[in-house]
Amino acid sequence: MYGAESLRLPGAELAARYRAAGWWRDETFLDDLARAARTRPEHPAIVAYRGDTPRTICYRELAELVERFAGALAALGVGRGDVVATYLPNVWQLTPLWLACARIGAVSAAMFPALAERELRYTMTVSRAPVCISLDRVDDVDLGARVAAAAPDTVRHRVVIGDGSAADAIDFAEFFLDTEHPTPDPALALRPDEPAVLVCTSGTSGQMKAVAHTSNTLYAAARAGAEPYRLGPDDVIVVPHPHTHMAGMTYGALMPLQLGATWLTYDRPSDLGLLLDSIEAHSVSWAYMSPGYLVNLIAAQRERARDTSSVRRIVSGSAPLQPDLVESVRDTFRVPVHALWGMTENAAVTMTRPDDPDDWATRSDGRAVPWMEVRIDADPGEDAGRLLVRGASQCLGYLHQRDVYDACFDGDWFDTGDIARPDGRGGIRIVGRRSDLIIRSNGMKVPVLEVEGLLARHPGIKELALVGYPDPAVPGSELCCAVVVPDGQPPTLAELHEFLGGTGMARVFWPDRVQFVWQLPKNSLGKIQRAPLHRRLELAAAPR
Fold this sequence. Notes:
alpha/beta
C-alpha cells in the first residue's frame, strides 16, 4: 500500500454537499468511457502523433485497450491500493494506462521525461510503486536505463515501450498487446472519492511533492475547462503540453474523455509546423497553451499559414498574458485568448470568460469557477494580499508529507502562496509569489510578475527573473535586480528604466541593477529557481 493514510480524505458531509450541488458525482471517467464506447463507438477519441505519423483510436478501441491493459497489470501482480508509475511523453498508451489502473483499483503516478534520476527515485520510493512503465528513449535520452538506475527495490517490474528494451525489462508490446490475460473483476474499480492519480510537482525550492487527486476532484477540474466555453462531444481539443502535468492531464485528456470528444497528442510538441498542420487536418476547436508556446506558434503560423478557422477559443495559463501577445493571437488566429489560473493542487480555479472585454486576459486572471472559492487576505490599506482557495477540485494532499500540506491551511482555506489583488469585476489578478516578494524601504511591495511581464517585452531580453537583495542602507528592506538572459545586445539599466517608464510602470518598482547570465537556474519541471539567484546577490551585497 502506498500510504493513503497520509492524505486528507474527504469527509462524508463535504462529499454529500458537493454531490448535492452537482460538483461531484457517483461515476468515474471509466463510466464516461463506457458511455462513449456504447453510444458513439467509432468516434475518434485519441489522435496520437508519434513523429509525423498519427494513430487514431476510437472509443470502442480505447475501451478494449483499457480492458487489455488492466489484465496485463493484474498479471504483473498490481492490485487494489498499488501504484503504477508512468514515465512517458504524450504517447497513445498513456491515457489507456491511467484508465487501466483505475479499472483494477490502482493509482497512477504520472511522471514526465524531463524528470531526472533524483525526482524519479523520489516518486517511485514515496509511492512504493511495484511497476514502472517508460518509453525506451526520448531524443538521445535512454529512459529505460534511467529508470533502471533510479528504481528502488520496491519496483518489481520495469516495462519499456519501444524497440530498445532495457536489460531485465518487460517488452510492453509483447506483454500488454500480444499476450492474453484474464479479465479483472469489475468490482475492483476505483470509486469516485478514492485517490486515483499522483501528479508530481515542485516549488522553486526543488522540493518534490506527489499531489493526490480523486476522480471527483479531477472531474470538477475538467468541468472548469469545458463549461465556460460550451464545449461538447463534437469538439476537437489540443493541449501540447505534458499530459503528466495537471493542465495537460485535465484539459488535454480527461476533459475530452468526459465529453466524449476527440483529443490530439504529440510526442514532439516542439514541432510547431506539425501541430499547425494537425489543427487544420482535424479541425481543432479548443486549445490550451502557455504564453511562451503561443509566441512560437504565432511565429510558425506567420511563416507558413494554415487554415485554423476551426479554432474558436484559446486558453492560456502558467504566466501572465501581455497585451501584445493577446493582440497577436487575435490577429493571427482570429480568436480571443482567455487567461486561466490554477495549481497542481486544484487545477483551474479562476479564468476569464467569453463575456469579458476582449483584452481582459491582460488585466485579470478571471473569476472563480462556481465550485471553487477565492479569498484575498490583505493588510489594512493594502490592495493585494495572500490568496486562499477552497472547493471541489482541491486535492487530497501530498503523499507522505501530511505536515507540509496541513501547514498550507488556514481553517479550511488552502493558502496558495500567491499574492493577488481584486480585478474590479469580481475576479483576481495574480501579482506574484510571497516567497518572491520584494519589499522596498518605504514598504512598497514590487509586483514581481507584472514588472517581469513588461520587461519580457523588451527586444533585448530573452528571459529574466526579478530578484530582491538586501539594501545595505536600510536593514530589513530590499533592492531589486533584473537578472537577464540577453537576446542580442544586452540592454543597459538606463534603457530598461526608459522602457518601463514608457509603459507607465511606477518608478518605485523599477530595478536598481541589472545582471546578465547565460541561463537562469531551473528545476527539472522548468520552473525558475530564484533562491540561488537571491543567495548570489545577497553574498554580493554583504559587507566585506
